[in-house]
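hiii so my PI (J.) wants the whole complex modelled not just the main chain, which honestly fair. so below is everything: two entries, each one labled with what it is. i double checked the lines twice but i was tired so who knows lol
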Amino acid sequence: MAISISILRKIIIPCLAILVLFAGACERGSGSGDKVSEEKEEVVVYSSRIEELIKPAFDAFTKETGIKVKYTTGKEEELLQRLKAEGENSPADILITVDAGNLWRAAENEVFQPIESAILSENIPENLRDQENRWFALTIRSRTIMYNTEKVSPEELSTYEALGDSKWKERLALRTSAKVYNQSLVASMIASLGEEEAEKVVKGWMANDPEIFGSDVKMLEAMAAGQKDVAIANTYYLGRLLKEDPELPLAVFWPNQDDRGAHVNVSGAGITKNSPNKDNAVKLLEFLSSAKAQKMFAETNIEYPVNPDAELHELLKEWGDFKRDDLNVSELGSNQVEAVKIMDRAGYK
Amino acid sequence: MEIISKRIGWSIFLIALAGLTALPIAYVAVAILTPTLDVWVHLWQTTLGEMFANTFFLMFGVGLGTMVLGTLLAWLVVVYDFPGKGFFDWALILPLAVPGYVMAFIALSIFNFTGPVQTAFRGWFGSGIWFPDIRSGFGVFIVMTLVLYPYVYLLARAAFLEQGATLIDAARSLGFNRTRAFFKVVLPMARPSIAVGVALAVMEAIADVGAVTTLGFPTLSSGVYRIWVGFFDEKAALELAGVLLVIALILLFLEKKLRGRARYYQELGRSIKAEPVTLSNWRRWGITALCSTVLAVSFGLPLAQLGIWAFGQIQVGALQARYLEFTLNTLGLAVIAALITIFIALLLAYGKRLNKGKTIGSAIQISAMGYAIPGAVVGIGIIAAIISGQTILNSIYSFFSDNKAPILSGSVTVLIYAYIVRFMAVAYRPTEASLEKVTPNMDMASRNLGKSPLSTLRLIHFPLLKVGLLTGAVLVFIDVMKEQPATLLLRPLGKETLATRVWQLTNESLWEAAALPAITIVLAGVIPIIFLMRASSGKSRKTTNITVEEIGLEGDI
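here's the output for the full assembly
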């Protein structure tokens, strides 16, 4: 008998404790079941854009409409996995993600629902929207050529392809092919030039023995310090660096102005298939596409707005207008797998 | 009859428990049975060879590095007397509190082209001077060895403390000098502990994604991510992760070999406190110098750099109220996960000892492999388990009630479940190793005296196991504090931990801002380490003596 009391103490009680923990922790979900199906004044966002970059816009939205925004952040692929796992029980209304490839992939995984909104169609150019209206771009960035102004003059530069020229041997810096931004860049070349040509371009870059960096920022800093002379990076990273130190000997160059234009990519969002607060979600997206929010949304990270009526950040105004590759950005997604294969074959790490 | 059914019930419960812990891993393992051929063909033609080579390099490099460094330091600290011995005794474990992904970006910031070291070099020697590239296999090897040697140090130190003195005396009385005594007698006796430490270090090294990505060293683990992200293919990513499981199996096999087949038992009452050996002056200071260098590079350097950055951040006003919330979340999760994991580990270890059946043993091996695969993969396995669990839950609810079933995904329970699966090895191994050192004679003696298995556990084993359990608990605590990928994936809406904050900021290259949460992780890990060391050096010997007196047994049992 003494034995069973020991068992009680040692095993059953901890098990009960665990069950209580379980019940308490799961209670979070049951809230939606208890209430009658009225739409609470909230909207739930899963975002791969970090908190710092989305909170200001969300706060402004709440101030204007009174609708609360709840959100969680994480890596794109993981959020997608989570959405798929949650299925119809998912509390998420909106998925915000960065890079058109990821938007395309989410759409392919049937995570979004098509939205008819006159406001969104008006505010966002067609090539920056999914053709079936499943997702919408919210900010634009260009992955373009940047150079050290003390070592290179703009006349020496022309196209992305030309960076394979032997005069750039040992002078080129690139970010790792593992980063989706580069995968999209190569994908855009596949779309314009075809697979074979695109592979030649990448091999050309590799022939110049480029220094590979894990981040754009470190790469640009190294370039400013003289380690390399020319690199391909996202506009907002340079913007950030120049904002901190306007004296940096770095400048932006817009390539391919005589043909397809400079490569652009987007961050964007779509409404989830099983969104519990659909009307609120549409309102949020429409708000984010409005000129006012676009200015704010893009300013926190020095990105280009998608809404042509929105005002640019001063630094971007200084850099001036340029011809953009007007490819429909979904093609960045549909060509991504082939892009990665090309990079693997070319030995681009 | 009662006893048999109780034993069977007990066995079933334990098998179910082990099974539940092994489930997500099993899901990953199963994926490789149906390989996505075109991805594998592409990998074979391009990067697979390199990923394998790099992973093996890591295994052997980090294995050897941590083994030598950890064992050497443990030996020096236990046996010799030197200035600062008391401090280094516990301080040498501190690098464990620094996450690998943090150490990597600190090493990068300090040693890359634009960092202070190379800039100074260029100042002294001119701009053409060569400097080793930190962003390489060499860099990864250094970073990981420095951050992971404490596993070996901790366990080797415990083994030396328990048995060192007696064995050395015995060996020397037989004519061995100190060095021969070390290599021929003490080291073999400490093998099981050292093997466990090395296995843990290597598993963590091959599972790492953060450090190898930062330092540009493609391994199988970073390859899993590349496929997941680049190829949009979760399934193929899981298949590659399955390869890691196979490697983990090989690792566990090697570890068993390293442990040897002999049974090593601790003799009660024989652990005399060793008299530290005094050496000539320059040797004493030599040891101090070695310990100082290791500690300075592996802990002092990251702490200093993080401190400088964090200080700058605080000035800018980063210390908001939410920061306290992140810290509390992190601590809370870590404590709960540590307690539950160690509890389960104890149950499983004990169950295996009593039943000696193969089933429990294999299930435990499978669950222990969770440590060798990337955290995100464990996360995916858990999500797969959640999908099934949710379906079951939904059916139960629709059958019995009108309410919608609670959502499993995004609950704290699932997150804790993920930590248990991921870190079972870290809790189980030290517990098992400790338990193995307890001679079966004690079990038999205790049973003969009329005590049930449970009472035996309570009165005899538990005091002896205390250190092992405490070690396991502290290791899990620290590991959970550092854990990033699974937490990112599974955490409840709006709940952030320090590690997820670090991710947010480093993802956008905001390293200085990431320093504040990063240094909190490190500092929070220091406290349990101190606690552990106080408990393990003071208590274990005292407890042993008391037990001897209580039982009234002396001499050989």
